[in-house]
Structure formats: structure tokens, C-alpha cells
Amino acid sequence: ASDENIQTDLVTLTRFILEQQRSLAKQASGELTLLLNSLQFAFKFIAHTIRRSELVNLIGLAGATNATGDDQKKLDVIGDEIFINAMKASKNVKVVVSEEQEDLIVFEGPGNYAVVCDPIDGSSNLDAGVSVGTIFGIYKLLPDSKGTINDVLRSGNEMVAAGYTMYGASAHLMLTTGNGVNGFTLDTSLGEFILTHPNLTIPHTRPIYSINEGNAAYWPKHIFDFVNSLKKPQPSTGKPYSARYIGSMVADVHRTLLYGGLFAYPADSKSKNGKLRMLYECFPMAMLLEQAGGMAVDDKGQRILDMVPSAIHDKSGIWLGSTGEIEKFLDSTKGK
Ligand code: AHM
Ligand code: MG
């Protein structure tokens, strides 16, 4: 675009959340706004660190002890530290649950929120330059709580906000505060997330399935049969589904949100409760998908957001995506 065509009235994430706060007069304490600001700082910092570390690893820039990365902190540890420090500094957060921390963290001082997160999900893909992401969900503390495990052992329905940032060719933030989904893209020169996908909705159907078929021998028969049925020419189109699996949840869900289709990680005889974590992987993605007009259920077809974890790192099987595709899965699970 020529200079004359430059968009000069950008909606930054900060502007967006301030405007949202003003329109939600009754909850306009501004605390969630401040918390979202601290979150976006963590995302920018992690995005920058991932970019930089690729170079550090490849050419051994100053500060790296060796080119193999042995003496460097692993990126998921750095991501975790960045996240926890940002939440601590915000003074609006009392409780943090991180995939990288066995126990719940409770901060001293003020704060009315609990944040659950996977700071760098899909980190096994990092060395190949595949997109990874931060997944997060936010609960308001229970009335009169000073911050305990009960603030996070709650159903997904009680989350007040959730989303992810995918660190790919650009950093993409998909956010819901329970009022639809909005997508932002980081403009690195401005240092701002810019609203690029307002009111995002997922296509109602799309013949794409995304599942690790290497586990097929461990699946229950009805799941095996269902996935097989997708590989046969479909009555409506005469063509089979396409398979797409990156192996990085944020990237697979991102594609599913934008293009439609089905993403699943079911439980199997090897991983009896599935692989993905209920609190900070399944719930935030389920909330986003539903807010975008899609669905998210477990292997038995129960709604993900209705589940209640009994421990912070509990897992669940998950099927999420376009309503048309999930309904097809639900039909196939009836009575199984
Ligand atoms: P992680 O939290 O250890 O990174 O694992 C979660 C990742 C997800 O991003 C992805 O959907 C899944 O593991 C892929 O698992 P698999 O390699 O078994 O297909
Ligand atoms: Mg993870």
C-alpha cells in the first residue's frame, strides 16, 4: 500500500480494552484492564525472547555459553519466569497456576484475580522453528478469598477471560472476555498488538481433521472408526477430509479457528485421561471456540467448560472446532 493508503486510526489492544471497560460500566473497576496490560507485556517479552533465542542458538551470540544450548536456560523456563514476574508485578493477580510449576503460586499483597497458563505450549517444536504459544485463562477470586486452590478448581464456565498468543511469523493474540473473540497482531515496530480480527467467528463446517494418528492403535474402537470415516469420500462433497497436524496446540487451534475443522486429542489406552491439561489448555481453548461460535467437548461428548478439575494439572480428552464437525463427532459417540 502506498503511504496515502496507510491506516492511521489503529485499534491497539490497550485502546480496545479501555473502550470495552468503559462500555461495561458495572464492572469498570479497571482491574481486569490492568491485568490484561500486564499480560500483553509478558506476550511481547516472550515473543521477543523466542525470536532472539533462535539466533542465539544458531550463531552463538554473546551471552550464550555454547552453541548447543546446554548451558542456557531452556526457553520454557524463561517463558515461565517472564510470565510469573509479569503477573506478580501487576498487583492485580493473587494466584498463578503454570504448567511449569508443580504447585500453585500465591502472591503477597493485593489482587482479585487468578491466572492459569501454559507459558510456552508446544515447546518441543521450538528448535524446528514451528509456532508455539502461550495459553491463559483468568478467574476472579471467590468472594472474600485471599487466594487459595479453590479459586482455580472451578468449572471453565467461571473464567472471565481467556486466550492465547501464538508466536509464529507474527505474534497473534486471540482474546475473549466472554463477549465474542477478537484477534490482535503484534506490530513489532510499534510494539503494539493491533486489532486485526474483530469479532472472529469460526466457519460452521470444514473438512479438516487434526489429530495425532500415531496414537490410533491406542484409541477406543469408536474413535478409530470415526476418524476412519473422515478418510472416506463424504456424501456431501464426494471427497475425504484433509489431515493437518502441527503438534503444537496453539497453532492447530489457530488454524481451526480461522479455517474451521476439527482438532482433537482424545484419551487412549496409553494416556488414560488424555494429554492436554484441563485448566490451562482445554478451558481457555474451549472458551475461545465457543465464543467464536464453535464447540468443545470431551471424549464422551460432554461440554469441556462444564468440567471441574480436582487438581490443578488434571487432564482431559478434547474435541473442538466447527459446530458441524463436532456434531458429527457427537453423533458417532452416541451410546458408546
Ligand atoms: P506441552 O505442554 O508439553 O508442550 O505438550 C502439549 C502439546 C500440545 O501443544 C500439542 O497439541 C500436543 O502436545 C501434541 O502432542 P503429541 O506430540 O503427543 O501429538
Ligand atoms: Mg502445554
Automatic annotation (TrEMBL):
<feature type="domain" description="Fructose-1-6-bisphosphatase class 1 C-terminal">
    <location>
        <begin position="202"/>
        <end position="329"/>
    </location>
</feature>
<dbReference type="GO" id="GO:0006000">
    <property type="term" value="P:fructose metabolic process"/>
</dbReference>
<keyword id="KW-0460">Magnesium</keyword>
<comment type="similarity">
    <text>Belongs to the FBPase class 1 family.</text>
</comment>
<dbReference type="GO" id="GO:0005829">
    <property type="term" value="C:cytosol"/>
</dbReference>
<dbReference type="InterPro" id="IPR033391">
    <property type="entry name" value="FBPase_N"/>
</dbReference>
<dbReference type="GO" id="GO:0006002">
    <property type="term" value="P:fructose 6-phosphate metabolic process"/>
</dbReference>
<dbReference type="GO" id="GO:0005986">
    <property type="term" value="P:sucrose biosynthetic process"/>
</dbReference>
<dbReference type="GO" id="GO:0030388">
    <property type="term" value="P:fructose 1,6-bisphosphate metabolic process"/>
</dbReference>
<protein>
    <recommendedName>
        <fullName>Fructose-1,6-bisphosphatase</fullName>
        <ecNumber>3.1.3.11</ecNumber>
    </recommendedName>
</protein>
<dbReference type="GO" id="GO:0042132">
    <property type="term" value="F:fructose 1,6-bisphosphate 1-phosphatase activity"/>
</dbReference>
<feature type="domain" description="Fructose-1-6-bisphosphatase class I N-terminal">
    <location>
        <begin position="12"/>
        <end position="198"/>
    </location>
</feature>
<dbReference type="Pfam" id="PF00316">
    <property type="entry name" value="FBPase"/>
</dbReference>
<dbReference type="InterPro" id="IPR000146">
    <property type="entry name" value="FBPase_class-1"/>
</dbReference>
<dbReference type="InterPro" id="IPR044015">
    <property type="entry name" value="FBPase_C_dom"/>
</dbReference>
<keyword id="KW-0479">Metal-binding</keyword>
<comment type="pathway">
    <text>Carbohydrate biosynthesis.</text>
</comment>
<dbReference type="GO" id="GO:0006094">
    <property type="term" value="P:gluconeogenesis"/>
</dbReference>
<keyword id="KW-0119">Carbohydrate metabolism</keyword>
<dbReference type="GO" id="GO:0046872">
    <property type="term" value="F:metal ion binding"/>
</dbReference>
<keyword id="KW-0378">Hydrolase</keyword>
<dbReference type="Pfam" id="PF18913">
    <property type="entry name" value="FBPase_C"/>
</dbReference>
<comment type="subunit">
    <text>Homotetramer.</text>
</comment>
<dbReference type="InterPro" id="IPR028343">
    <property type="entry name" value="FBPtase"/>
</dbReference>
<dbReference type="InterPro" id="IPR020548">
    <property type="entry name" value="Fructose_bisphosphatase_AS"/>
</dbReference>
